[in-house]
Amino acid sequence: MSAVAPRLATASAVTAAPFEMMDTAVTAPSSIAPVGSMEATRAATEWLQAFNAAIAGRDVNAAVALFVADGHWRDLVAFTGSIGTVSGQADIARTLAGCLNHSAPGELTLAAGRTPARWVTRAGREVLEAILDFRTAQGIGSGVLRAIADPQGPGGVRAWVLVTALNALHGDDRRGLSREQALDSSREFGGENWLDRRNQARAYVDHDPDVLIIGAGQAGLSIAARLSTAGVDTLVIDRESRIGDNWRQRYHSLTLHNEVHVNHLPYMPFPPTWPTFIPKDKLANWFESYVESLEINCWTQTELTDGHWDEAEHRWTLSIRRADGSVRTIRPRHLVFACGVSAIPKRVQAPGLDDFRGTVMHSGDFNDGRHWHGKRALVLGTGNSAHDVAQDLHSHGVKVSMIQRSPTHVVSLRQAQRVYSLYTEGMPIDDSDLLATAMPYPVLLEAYKIFTALSKQVDQPLLDRLAASGFRLTAGEDDTGFQMMYLRRGGGYYFNVGCSDLIADGKIGLIQYSDIDCFVPEGVKMKDGTVIGADLLVTATGYYNPNEVVRRALGDAVADRVGEVWGLDHDGEVRNMWRPTAQPGLWFTAGSLAQCRIYSRYLALQIRMQLGA
């Protein structure tokens, strides 16, 4: 069993597809409310009546006949108890037949008080879009129907995409104390006050948490908020000194690459005064206030060093090292790794690098270029971090060149926001989040092809100049752009905030890795014999798969049992994320703030159901 403590809670400034529901009434930045229609309402109602009749009669064949041949059903815990997508009538029928009896769904109805049924364009198709409500044996759910016109279908439509998502377990509306009861119990003269109770709760002197979360970034805090507010005893640990240091310690110029209205965490939306693109330190400080406001139990300067799963007792035995060097053994029922998509830096191996006399550092350790003024630098890599590091060095008077190893997708920052266009339609964000979940993998592919093509048209003049400078470009596998590159492999793209212009203008140099012979003490020697001098090499070479964190902390057997984490499985769902893994009691959560907000709901519900909440 490994005793190597992984570097935890590394966050990524890049973003992925916005999915899920949120608990606030914050609106997107638009004053135009979506307008429904009587015709859309009638069509959706007639389809639902037919579907409900089929479900009530357990007539699976009648139910799937209401879908188009290439239809999709995405379930988020509501019917199947997990997260998954099935496509095509045969697979929908098989999955539906396997879960109807135990889920015992009631009628699906149009949701009252939410965005009305209407006709819209999604992924290039004209669709009827409606938000639904329903109940199951487990709890209360919401859904999305996206249907296309078909004269032979009920209401003149057939389902293209159906999403069913569990929102809450039965009894959640009665959990906890009312405000009046909480106020009365908080004033006890001569007894413990609120702070006394908080200090006792987070000290864990005489008990262990039910859930231990590794990492206090957006992923760890989102799932901790979901669990703790539902009454699940939850502890978050992080090896950094302060909550938010996973952002605070990153390079000086870092800001988020998507707009503020997409990025709220559960229960506490950002204030409306916040800037469009959030600076790293502002976000880091918000994380600290988030922990205090939601009374999340956190231990900083703490790391998981070892552990094993007890098959007989169905719980973990874990060793965690505290700030003072002491080791505490805790035995939680569930362990959640919230260490980010990219957790442990990859250290580059290159011919002659050991002979290089300059400074070598990973981009995760780079802060700013002021100390390198007047020097020469090389940046190995051409993703977001590499470009930002190169631009920062250039701004501080450093002669810098980037080393490109593989073709890179470049999109301007504003054009990158196209993938969040749903959030500018004027709906409350909880509606936008739910509708964003109705994008199964085949639909995502088509949508991202459209977004990428439109962005490329606008960015073409810059892309032509980059190509002329020798920069190798790609639109991603099957021309789906940065979103699918992120979901598939976690990188390979750059949101241009100015560095591409500097490369195209020759102000930042460009070296192709294939033209390098080897590193030498003075810098790099090219295959033509020339030497490019350097005092600094920044390796923006990415991070190991999150599975490697498990391997170092819990050993090979557990890591091998879990398998690969992140990337897409055969159903187009993110591998081993937010749903049960092959290792009982072990879960993963990661991604952008939107993903963490969204999927923390469904992860928390699954954990709570296993705990018997």
Provide structural commentary.
This protein is of the alpha/beta class. Among the domains are: 38-172, Nuclear Transport Factor 2, Chain: A (Roll); 195-343 and 550-563 and 583-611, FAD/NAD(P)-binding domain (3-Layer(bba) Sandwich), CATH 3.50.50.60. Helix content is 31%, strand content 22%. It is built from 17 helices and 25 strands. Strands 1, 2, 3, 4, 5, 6 and 7 form a seven-stranded mixed sheet that branches. Strands 10-9-8-14-25 form a five-stranded parallel sheet, with helices on one face. The protein has a five-stranded parallel sheet with strand order 15-24-16-17-20, with helices on one face.
- Low-confidence stretches are 1-32
Tell me the name of the CATH class of the domain at 195-343 and 550-563 and 583-611.
Alpha Beta
Per DSSP, what share of the residues sits in E-state strands of 2 or more residues?
Answer: 15-25%
- Looking at CATH, which topology of the domain at 195-343 and 550-563 and 583-611 would you report? FAD/NAD(P)-binding domain
The termini sit apart by 32 Å
Shape: globular
Helix content: 25-40%
Number of helices: 17
| Arithmetic mean of pLDDT | 90
**Total DSSP E strands:** 25
How large is the radius of gyration? 26 Å
CATH architecture of the domain at 195-343 and 550-563 and 583-611: 3-Layer(bba) Sandwich
